[in-house]
From TrEMBL:
This is NPH3 domain-containing protein. SMART domains: BTB. The gene is LOC101267032. Residues 17-84 form the BTB domain. Keywords: Ubl conjugation pathway.
Length: 570
């Protein structure tokens, strides 16, 4: 019989055993003859050594105490129970001990091999369980091609039914704050799991990255649809990285951090390159984890490049990457965002400028979000804004978004000098502001005086242009017809010419009055008037100008608020 000496008194005499073995600290007392009858390796060792304890001769034995006890019971004639959880370990140990048909008929290697072929390599669940159990003896299992056999079966099943990897991800592009979105993007189909016969209760996420990576790489090589591969990759990250990632100050164990870092670097290498296949929200989540875990620079750069290539599909939330480290100076990692922007612009190949406009508006919204950070540097704000402005030069995109960001930044950074406030406003194109934004700016005491005056001049030029266009059109807003009778055309031409001269003269007088009033306002400011007086004067002048131009019919129309989404700070 197989006996464990740890369960008996040390003084008890062992009557039916004549050799002792210690496997990972657990002592076994075994019959020499029965061991030699089944194991060619033990037979040779026992023949050459008369010692009672031969443990030191089996220092490289590829097993654990539970598997060794199972094999020893087989040697002593007991029935053993094979399962997916122990079959690969039993096969490796049987091969190590030389338990082949050449040494003894009906030996363990044949018995375990048949079980592996017929019972394990016919079931998705059992194959994955068997692979999982092989992780502690991975090299020995690989040498016997047991890992390759399991991997080949899994790949063949996935080629026939890719949904075994999980349902394809949904690309969420709306700015939804629902926290369940990220999980639902790559969640398995519950209905399929309930009604498909023998649906997998186990999946590849159970495997270590050392087993998972080569299997996924082989699937990609065998052209398994990439949307299913991507789904499996993010299920894997969800299980091993996303749920357990911690910040540096939480002091996670070094082993956990190193393991998670290895996983996220491996998954980044496996990610398909196809644009739009993986939602930007998940790529952003992965990048944040890589930064927290201090992953290799190549890994972080790869994720930034992927996000950059599809930045026109991203949301503001995807760019709000928290800064890391004890010496962090800003709330968000704006340096990473700048690299993402540069990746987008350098990879943008479309002749249409719509994608550039979308990203420029995204940057405006991002700036509005981060501008409330009291630690956001002026140079950082300007560099992001300039990237956006330069890319959309020549388009009709309005400046309301950047104005809103400037307004928030000036409000949160009241300590800025006059020169610095001028620098902040340098990226604002006053000629592209909406009427609502212009009216808000005219009463905005945070703006430098020069910018306010510039906005007012921009407004009057727009008004002048609009009046000129109206003069050139008929009373029903259509161009004058030239095909009419020559005499009527001549009379009409003279009449219209006189009317145009009169209205142009009147418009010129109004413009001169406006310029004079703006000049008076600037001179009053330079004389050192109080801020309250300046604000009051600016407001009254704005109202007066609108009244004179004819844009305001009554006093109750003076309040023209800008929509919060576009202009007001949050």
């Amino acid at each position: 019989m197989v006996k464990s000496k740890s369960k008996e008194s040390p003084s008890r005499k062992l009557m039916h055993t004549d050799v002792q073995l210690h496997v990972y600290g657990v002592p076994f007392s075994l019959n020499r003859g029965l061991l030699a009858a089944r194991s060619s390796k033990l037979a040779a060792l026992l023949k050459e050594n008369d010692e009672d304890d031969i443990s030191h001769l089996l220092g490289d034995i590829p097993t654990d105490s539970e598997t060794f006890e199972l094999v020893a019971r087989f040697c002593h004639g007991f029935d053993i129970i094979l399962s997916p959880d122990n079959i690969i370990k039993v096969l490796c140990l049987a091969h190590y001990l030389g338990m082949s048909e050449i040494h003894s008929t009906n030996n363990l290697t044949k018995k375990a091999g048949l079980y592996f072929q017929n019972n394990v390599l016919s079931s998705w669940n059992k194959t994955i369980k068997a692979l999982k159990s092989a992780e502690i003896i991975l090299q020995q299992a690989a040498d016997l091609s047991l890992v390759d056999a399991c991997a080949e079966f899994i790949i063949a099943k996935v080629l026939h039914n890719p949904s075994l990897l999980g349902e394809p991800m949904r690309n969420i592009t709306t700015a939804d704050d629902d926290s369940e979105n990220d999980e639902n993007v790559y969640k398995s189909n519950v209905k399929r799991r309930l009604f498909v016969h023998d649906w997998k209760s186990e999946d590849l996420t159970l495997l270590s990255i050392a087993l998972y990576e080569p299997i996924i790489r082989a699937m990609v090589h065998r052209e398994v649809p990439l949307e299913y591969v991507a789904s499996s990759l993010f299920q894997y990250l969800s299980k091993w990285v996303f749920l357990d990632t911690k910040r540096e100050d939480d002091d996670p164990s070094t082993y956990t951090r190193n393991s998670q870092r290895e996983i996220i670097e491996a998954v980044e290498r496996l990610l398909p390159q196809k644009r739009g296949l993986i939602p930007s929200s998940l790529l952003s989540k992965m990048l944040q984890s890589a930064i927290i875990l201090d992953a290799h620079t190549e890994c972080k750069n790869g994720l930034e490049t992927r996000i950059g290539k599809q930045l026109d599909q991203a949301t503001v939330k995807d760019l709000l990457i928290p800064a890391q480290g004890y010496a962090k100076e800003e709330q968000y990692d704006t340096v990473s965002v700048k690299r993402i922007l540069k990746n987008f612009y350098s990879n943008y190949e479309s002749t249409e400028k719509s994608g550039l406009v979308v990203v420029a508006e995204l940057v405006d919204d991002f700036l509005a979000e981060v501008s409330s950070d009291i630690d956001l540097k002026l140079n950082t704000f300007l560099s992001l804004a300039e990237l956006s402005q330069a890319a959309t030069a020549g388009t009709n995109r309005n400046s309301d978004g950047i104005y809103r960001a400037i307004d928030i930044y000036l409000d949160r950074h009241r300590y800025l000098t006059d020169w610095e406030r001028e620098e902040v406003c340098r990226v604002l194109d006053c000629s592209k502001m909406s009427p609502e934004a212009c009216e808000h700016a005219a009463t905005n005491e945070k703006l430098p005086v020069r910018v306010t005056v510039q906005i007012l001049f921009s407004v009057q030029l727009k008004l002048k242009d609009n009046v000129t266009k109206r003069i050139k059109r008929g009373p029903d807003n259509r161009l004058l017809k030239l095909e009419e009778d020559e005499e009527d055309a001549k009379g009409t031409s003279n009449s219209e010419e006189e009317m145009m001269k009169a209205e142009m003269e009147m418009m010129g007088n109004k413009v001169l009055e406006l310029e004079k009033e703006c000049h008076m306002m600037r001179r009053e400011i330079q004389r050192g008037s109080s801020q309250h007086k300046i604000q009051k004067e600016k407001t009254s002048m704005w109202k007066e100008m609108k009244r004179k131009i004819g844009c305001m019919t009554s006093s109750h129309e003076t309040n023209c608020h800008v929509k919060k989404k576009k202009v007001h700070p949050r």
